[in-house]
Amino acid sequence: MLNINVMKVKTRCDGDLTIVTIYCIECEESFELVVKTTDWHRFEIGKEFIRDCFPYLTLDQRELLLSGICGECFDKLFKEEEE
User: Fold this and answer.
1) What's the number of domains the chain is made of?
2) Which end of the chain is more exposed for a tag (fewer CB within 10 A), N or C?
3) Is 28 left (phi over 0), alpha (psi -120 to 50) or beta?
């Protein structure tokens, strides 16, 4: 589910593609993801798993969409739990 209250997310539609700009809530770096517009709409509805909506995105990109935390920050935050 997309938590717009915490995450900074901007989208712009360019025909069949949607450019999603997301700012990491930890480091505030911006990331641009290009997704199919139909997949973005499926994700916004929230009735499907993110992996089914965007099988072509990496795990880090999908995590960024879900939590607002980029891969590098995620690894830093949860490093202790892995060890």
Assistant:
1) 1
2) C
3) left
Place of tokens 């607002």: 68
The full length of the chain comes to 83
What is the DSSP secondary-structure string of the chain? ---TTTSEEEEEEETTEEEEEEE-TTT--EEEEEEEHHHHHHHHHT-S-HHHH-TTS-HHHHHHHHHS--HHHHHHHTHHHH-
* Domain membership of residue 15 as a residue range: 8-82
Q: Which region, left, alpha or beta, applies to residue 68 given φ > 0 means left and ψ of -120 to 50 means alpha?
A: left
Residue 22 lies in a domain: yes
1 in a structural domain: no
Considering the entire predicted model, what is its pTM?
A: 0.81
